[in-house]
Amino acid sequence: KQEVTQIPAALSVPEGENLVLNCSFTDSAIYNLQWFRQDPGKGLTSLLLIQSSQREQTSGRLNASLDKSSGRSTLYIAASQPGDSATYLCAAAISSGSARQLTFGSGTQLTVLP
Amino acid sequence: NAGVTQTPKFRILKIGQSMTLQCTQDMNHNYMYWYRQDPGMGLKLIYYSVGAGITDKGEVPNGYNVSRSTTEDFPLRLELAAPSQTSVYFCASSYSWAAGNTIYFGEGSWLTVV
After folding, report:
1. Measured over all CA atoms, what is the biggest interatomic distance in chain B, rounded to whole angstroms?
2. For A57, which DSSP code?
3. Chain B interface, mutation test: which of A34, A87, A100, most B Cβ atoms within 10 Å?
4. Can you give the pLDDT at residue B99?
5. What value does the mean pLDDT of chain B take?
């Protein structure tokens, strides 16, 4: 059974700092790896999706990497801003017959201090 | 664009009561999903559907039922509510499960069973 872990559970950084969020997964046979942002009282917004054949994806100040062999993904946020404060979740997509689903980590709650 | 719309936003149920969480999407997506999120945890898949008339169980289906009579709607039925069903419920949709497809989430339904 796929398990996804995110450490740390919470992170607080001063504005302007570059930071890395970590995600690890136990089964390397993933279809893709996705990063989401969740604001309080809101749903999830997809940030980046990395296919199993890719090593990284970039969107603006965000860069996500994927290393299937080690079961790890990272989300790099450059020049953090208070507006980046949110919970960030990663999810590994598996496809096994009809059992297509995302397995989510429990998230890292990021606070960027002005 | 409305995207994925869930109702109600908040609901308090008594033990043993039943209710339906409504979900509709206006993006003509084939795939729809219901997840639950317990405090400090990731999302767990309850049920999913790959098209009208086709549904399948996810990781935590017990105590729930779904139907998919149209492409747009995917209601989640809770029968005989139990305190263990206190959670935040998210509906989501995607065009397909194929590589590169983004998943869109609704804003969530907060359910408390007392």
Report:
1. 42
2. E
3. A100
4. 53
5. 92
Mutate to test the interface with A, among B103, B104, B107, B109 (most CBs of A within 10 A): B103
Q: Do B42 and A89 touch (CB under 8 A)?
A: yes
B87, B25, B31, B83: which is closest to B58 by C-alpha? B31
Rounded-to-integer distance, Cα B12 and Cα B51, Å: 31
- Please compute the mean of the pLDDT values over residues B69-75 and round it to a whole number: 97
Distance from CA of A19 to the nearest CA of B (A): 22
Question: How close A104 comes to chain B (CA, Å)?
Answer: 5
Torsion from C-alpha of A13, A8, B101, B103, nearest 10 degrees:
-90
Q: What angle do CA B49, B53, B57 make, to 5 degrees?
A: 40
Cross-chain CB nearest to B97 (options A44, A95, A105) = A95
CA distances from A13 to A21, A81, B33, B94 (A): 12, 10, 34, 34
pLDDT in tens, A20-76: 999 999 988 888 899 999 998 888 999 999 988 999 999 999 999 999 999 999 999
Helix (H, G, I), strand (E, B) or coil at A70: coil
Nearest to A32 among B48, B90, B99 (CB): B99
> Which residues between 18 and 37 in chain B have a beta carbon less than 8 angstroms from any beta carbon of chain A?
33
Residue A91 C-alpha from the chain's centroid? 7
- pLDDT tens across A74-112, in order? 999 999 999 999 999 999 988 655 546 788 999 999 999
